[in-house]
Model the fold of this input.
Amino acid sequence: MSKISIFGLGYVGCVSIGCLASNGHQVTGVDLNQTKVDFINMGKSTIVEQGIDRLISEQHGRKNISATTQAIQAVIDTDVSFICVGTPSSNNGHLNLQSIYNVADEIGKGIREKDGFHVVVIRSTVIPGTNAKVTGIVEASSGKKNHAGFAVVSNPEFLREGSAVNDYYHPPYTLIGSDDNQAIAIMKDVYEGIDAPIIITEIEIAELLKYVNNAFHALKIAFANEIGNICCKLGINGHKLMDIFCADKKLNISPCYLKPGFSYGGSCLPKDLKAIKTIAHDFYLECPVIENIEKSNELQKRIVYEKIL
Ligand SMILES: NC(=O)c1ccc[n+]([C@@H]2O[C@H](COP(=O)([O-])OP(=O)(O)OC[C@H]3O[C@@H](n4cnc5c(N)ncnc54)[C@H](O)[C@@H]3O)[C@@H](O)[C@H]2O)c1
Done:
């Protein structure tokens, strides 16, 4: 059993507090928002989500969860702190990581007051380099050294709103970005109750992976919609067509063609891509994803040539 503090009682934090408690851990939620803290202390969820009300109520009844606005005390009382605060886009499109940095500073102040090793887990979606920045902030405010008094681990969340509790218990894998063996061992204990492989990787890979996942999911949706639009124009049932497309687990829904490297070529791919673009053009149908594949491929040729020369 680990003693865990969860910073941020929004979507990810609320699901984490309930699910980690039900896996046998003692969990303390921390938020600036007194109303959210009061909700948890009354055994109520801070979000609307299938299965979460019962989970929070049950775990509160068993005295496995509580919440507070007192960040430093929460860190002193626990061994692992999860950062689950929001990372909204700023006006210029960059990520606003200020809440992450504020929490890192608070956690550092707590670590300064305690003796044992502390694991800081970045659960929020953050850009590569954030772990290093958080490590610097914690070092400064705790007065302790990375790998000695604490370590910062990147552990992105893959839940979807609407099925978040189920997604928590059944992730494709648990991803831990860390270069600290003590922190890795502690994280393995935290996730002992989850029946999914644990992948340990470099910090920057763990940080970027969530963005890669979501970019790919968005690409799949946009591609399927463009195919559906072409099908509509041709009077073809797009759902039936995509069912058959998805039934090919060898080349279509598979790791095939998903390794970075050189551009595509040969006779079929360029010719058939031109043909499907022309079908769309003949119907005055815009298909920006499909139309720009060739452009991306030409760009890749240039990038690779420049690397070789
Ligand atoms: N919502 C999702 O489905 C989802 C899924 C996966 C990942 N994520 C990522 O997880 C992160 C959190 O998302 P969310 O939707 O749970 O956010 P949210 O906005 O619902 O909740 C964030 C919470 O953090 C609290 N907070 C802010 N500053 C704080 C501080 N200094 N100390 C303590 N609490 C503080 C806020 O009061 C708020 O309750 C984001 O990076 C998001 O991109 C979200």
About this structure: The CA atoms of residues 5 and 81 lie 5 Å apart.
